[in-house]
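Tokens as discussed.
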């Protein structure tokens, strides 16, 4: 059983500064009103460098809530304090199997912890785009003996939603360790449990929707899969701007898992206020670029039956990308990551070039053999970049420990 953790520190004070910046122009008002929720299976939180990386993300991207799995914290341990955020965690206890551990970094006082006695999942209540929302983070077991335990977890989550989720919209994000045919070519027992759970509660599997940018959530060497998911009620999905999976691994703390970020816009009254404030419109040339991006997205999935809502979702997402580029020059520069160097940048450029070559080959109708070859090259460049980033982060952690030991 888990309970709210005390304020005991495990790793020392973090140097991360408070997130959130005041906005003056209409564009900044919109940025301020965006609500962002993140999640990552960090594969061990006993490295201070990882928490500093999280602190930088919280400051740069202004997350309202940031969930983490597999913290590997025990009993009453806590991560370093991050200014502006409260830690709420569920650690494994002495006598339980090693690993595990869930936690949430929560900004301000807008969210309230619920059901502190739950195992392997956490609950918060708050508001998303003006809607009362029950937000959950979950971790499900993997392995041949996982079916019974995972079935119990789904039963517990369902019961919690019935009892504390009345008149609430629902969001659940987590490492489900579930394989689905749509992503991995097969559905395992946990995947079937996940499908049944979504059907029973009428939840949208966001990974499978057009608003999700990215597919792979776990990658190691030559293997990759989709096992981390985001589920939400239909009303919230209608207001969701985007879900982003960090397939490049640049924001995933060196973990084999990829960070998930979901982003909501302002509530309806706030949107109307922004419209009256006169948010700048895109030029004709920019609109043409947006249209071209939509055309490319649709052409890459010819087998999909596109609905009007799907196309509107793509259009909104592409507009947001161009608006971000417009205001990008106004943003303050942040301290470079300790592991980011020319070697990492070059690897990411090679990955991006390989991705473009594959996309262009498909668009011009190249022979299947050439398209397949371009795809394999892209996968190889992506693995190369991911492995390099993980190695750099690990090296940065070792270097930091050596410097500490010298003092």
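Sequence:
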């Amino acid at each position: 059983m888990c309970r709210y953790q005390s304020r005991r520190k495990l790793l020392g004070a973090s140097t991360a500064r408070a997130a959130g910046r005041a906005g003056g122009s209409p564009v900044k008002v919109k940025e301020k009103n965006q609500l962002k929720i993140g999640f990552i299976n960090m594969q061990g939180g006993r490295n201070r460098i990882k928490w500093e990386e999280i602190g930088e993300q919280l400051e740069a991207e202004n997350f309202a809530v940031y969930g983490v799995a597999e913290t590997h914290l025990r009993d009453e341990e806590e991560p370093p304090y991050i200014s502006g955020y409260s830690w709420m965690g569920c650690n494994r206890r002495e006598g339980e199997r090693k690993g595990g551990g869930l936690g949430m970094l929560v900004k301000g006082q807008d969210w309230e912890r619920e059901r502190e006695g739950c195992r392997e999942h956490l609950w918060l209540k708050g508001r998303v785009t003006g809607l009362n929302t029950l937000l959950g983070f979950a971790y499900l077991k993997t392995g041949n003996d996982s079916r019974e335990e995972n079935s119990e977890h789904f039963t517990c989550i369902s019961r919690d939603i019935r009892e504390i989720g009345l008149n609430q919209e629902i969001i659940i994000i987590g490492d489900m360790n579930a394989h689905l045919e749509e992503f991995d070519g097969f559905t395992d027992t946990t995947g079937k449990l996940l499908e049944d759970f979504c059907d029973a509660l009428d939840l949208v599997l966001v990974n499978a929707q057009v608003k999700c940018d990215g597919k792979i959530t776990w990658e190691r060497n030559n293997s990759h899969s989709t096992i981390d998911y985001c589920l939400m009620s239909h009303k919230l999905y209608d207001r969701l701007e985007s879900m982003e999976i960090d397939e490049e691994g640049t924001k995933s703390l060196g973990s084999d898992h990829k960070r998930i970020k979901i982003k909501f816009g302002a509530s309806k009254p706030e949107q109307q206020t922004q419209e009256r404030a006169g948010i700048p419109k895109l030029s004709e040339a920019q609109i043409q670029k947006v249209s071209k991006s939509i055309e490319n997205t649709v052409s890459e999935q010819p087998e999909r039956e596109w609905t009007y809502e799907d196309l509107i979702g793509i259009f909104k997402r592409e507009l947001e990308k161009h608006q971000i580029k417009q205001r990008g020059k106004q943003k303050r520069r942040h301290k470079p990551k300790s592991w980011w160097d020319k070697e990492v940048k070059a690897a990411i450029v090679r990955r991006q070039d390989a991705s473009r070559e594959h996309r262009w080959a498909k668009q011009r109708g190249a022979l299947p053999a050439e398209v397949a070859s371009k795809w394999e090259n892209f996968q190889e460049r992506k693995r190369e970049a991911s492995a390099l980033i993980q190695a750099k982060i690990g090296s940065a952690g070792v270097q930091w420990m050596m410097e500490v030991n010298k003092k």
